[in-house]
Amino acid sequence: MLPPEFILTLEDVDKSFDGFKAINGLTFYMDTGELRTIIGPNGAGKSTMLDLITGRTRPDRGKIEFGRNTDLTRLNEYRINRLGIGRKFQTPTVYIEHTVFENLLLSLPGRRSVWATIFSRTRPAQLDRIDEVLQTVGLSEAREQRAGALAHGQKQWLEIGMLLAQDPKLLLVDEPAAGMTDEETVKTGELLLRLAGRHSILVIEHDMTFVRQIARKVTVLHQGAVLCEGTVDEVQNNEKVIEVYLGRKKKDKH
Amino acid sequence: MMGRRLKDSHWWWVGLGSLVVLVVLPGLNAFTSVTHPLHVSDFSINLYGKYLSYAVLALSVDLLWGYTGLLSLGQCLFFSLGGYALGMYLMLMIGKLGQYHRELPDFMVFLGYPKLPAHWLPFRDFWFAAAAVVWVPALVALIFGFLAFRSRIRGVYFSILTQALTYAASLMFFRNDFTFGGNNGLTDFKFILGHDLRSPATQRALYLCTGVLLLLTYLLCSALTRTTFGKVQRAIRDRENRVLFSGYATADFKLFVFVLSAVIAALAGALYVPQVGIINPSEMAADKSLEAVVWVAVGGRGTLLGPILGAVGVNALKSWATRALPDLWLLLLGTLFIVVTLFLPKGIVGLPEQLRQLRRRPSRVVRPTAQEAPPAAMPVKPQAKPE
Known about the structure:
By secondary structure, chain A is an alpha/beta fold. Chain A is 38% helix and 25% strand. Chain B is 67% helix and 2% strand.
């Protein structure tokens, strides 16, 4: 068997905004099938890193590759998505006027051109797939509900479901537990753990309880570069991390 | 089950509306004597024909604004381009019956043109003009839309740009040396396809054509909005980023809708011009496009019956008000827009549903935000901005 290849490679990536170095010599590798958590204080460059991977912004310098040799720095958002990279935004981003079912229908893999969408018909296999995703994210009951009427947590799950419906190779999940109740947070963690292995998942998170629940390998970002990597315990006991992140976190914990 | 019943009753209304517009009104005009109590006058038919072409224009605005979230404040540019294209044909059909009794259109004689400019020549052919009604606005929309959407111009910036576009075009058409009649535009039409434009039968036929165009546009929009394409359209309106990050090239979708609605508006303009007998650059003025937006808002955007009701209703009101209270018309229109924006977010079409909710929960103010807001215990995140 071949050794697991990297699904994501970032090497020496720089990105500045008006002179502010949001990403500063970032080098990051992620294995196929891995569930990785990224933590870091505000302004560490976590969201910028996702923006760079998904084509929302371009790096000033450096290499960003998907799988073996697919250069992501030249592609735009929708092309990167078609390669199999799904992104969940920090705030729930669903189509509020569509039903839960329609939200998923629009996310299923398939041809995305104008003509294809005008003449496409929904196939039975697609309906089965939607029901399967609904079950996975626990929204079977809400199938025909308007997405705008869902509770906050349910919207987050729907968005994760929309990513799953695309059947991506790599899932980028930005603060999935933000604004959730404790119970919802636990459920979200369980969901991500179930998905790990079948998909490679990169989670950005603030909530340390949640990180503890899901994390296998944690990467700490600080000032646009990797500060350290390891298990939750290793990271939490790391002097540098305590100084820049956890120490500060404890002080202003609300 | 409720949805099914609503849908059926909706088609019933479409059928009834088509019957009245396409059979009853023209029938009463053609086959009853002027003294008959139910007689519809030639003047009325001509007026209704104008309303119908406005209704088509309103549908084109709604396809952009109500369904795709693109508020175009320059839709009348395409309406006017369609009108000008057909107007050029009509101008050449006047022949020697003009004021100066020359082959050359009056305004060209007046402005001292030695001969017909080369680009006017092929407009002697009706079908060339008819094709130009479609492709000229489509091309303008394609170029403008391509540049705007590729540069990711969104929201209010898009609206401002469309307004600037139509304003720039109107300034161009105002110029005498732009060969389209300048200030006065094209007018004094006499014949279309050999038929006298002043005869009631010709006007009735034009009215019928406009009615058929409205019906076809309605059916097209209704079919389109039910496809996956229609769902993508509304998804772009509600969360463009999600659509983009789901693998759809949203710029292509917006461009398609923009060009399609430009063509629809142009067809409406082409039928409007022979019925009102004139096209000039004031039709491109920014306020005309704004008015079309008001019709859609009043009728109910994001619905297909709404824009039609809005266009016909507001224009009927305008016809009455400009006679009865000429000084107050603009004030009335502004008030109407404000009232609709504040209290009727879904327009006239949404009114029954609002009343039903009011009856169910009489204690609550009818404000959509009041019903949409999540329970207070939940963290309320700003919805409009993913990021």
